[in-house]
Amino acid sequence: MFTGIIESIGSIRSLTPKGGDVRVYVATGKLDLADVKLGDSIAVNGVCLTAVELPGDGFWADVSRETLDVTAFNELKAGSRVNLEKALTPTSRLGGHLVSGHVDGVGEVVARADNARAIAFRLRAPHALAKYIAHKGSITVDGTSLTVNAVDGAEFELTIVPHTLAETIMGDYRPGRRVNLEVDLLARYLERLLLGDKAAEPTQGAGISESFLAANGYLKS
């Protein structure tokens, strides 16, 4: 688990294809690796990776075919800047929100504009994720815990203050940039809980629908 508070900007040093997936070397910049052991988790742009080698100034990790298929990781190359966060501990400050490091989908930056000293971004999420994104709710973008300022269909707006721009890779974002999205854990579990016993039925794969809510008394006619 993570908090979505980025600890360092690192960079991709090497991407090596291995048997259909990829081994990656991440240079970790100012990230303190003194307490990191082999097998520990580190989030790279919001993707939870396992450290398999620790050469000193970074770590090696294996990126599975599944991760390459469902995240924007396959767009990274040697030299790409990445957000880094070590897994939280029982004594960590929860400055953001609970983040699993399991990416739900890939979004796209559609607009960027100055807003006083901040930057306003508009992003488009995959349609399947739109129902989980709420005004003033939390969302994780490339591993960064952020507050949603407005929602319009599958698009949502963020206002990023100068500190966040400096301490994450968001200053690099331009329209067309693809980003990893993880929705709030509570929203996902709430959807599953609302299904009740029907969650065990294979036909419920589509999840909560308006007709389901009406049939089960959650909507008034």
TrEMBL record:
Leader sequence residues: none
Keywords carried by this UniProt record: Repeat, Riboflavin biosynthesis, Transferase
Protein's name according to its UniProt entry: Riboflavin synthase
Chain's role: Catalyzes the dismutation of two molecules of 6,7-dimethyl-8-ribityllumazine, resulting in the formation of riboflavin and 5-amino-6-(D-ribitylamino)uracil.
Any single Pfam family the record assigns to this protein: Lum_binding
Annotated EC: 2.5.1.9
NCBIfam families according to UniProt: PRK09289.1, PRK13020.1, ribE
Enzyme category, top tier: transferase
Classification via SUPFAM superfamilies: Riboflavin synthase domain-like
Residue span, Lumazine-binding domain: 1-97, 98-194
Pathway membership: Cofactor biosynthesis; riboflavin biosynthesis; riboflavin from 2-hydroxy-3-oxobutyl phosphate and 5-amino-6-(D-ribitylamino)uracil: step 2/2
Catalytic activity: 2 6,7-dimethyl-8-(1-D-ribityl)lumazine + H(+) = 5-amino-6-(D-ribitylamino)uracil + riboflavin
UniProt lineage: Bacteria, Pseudomonadati, Pseudomonadota, Gammaproteobacteria, Pseudomonadales
Entry's Gene Ontology molecular function annotations: riboflavin synthase activity
Transmembrane segments: none
Lumazine-binding repeats: 1-97, 98-194
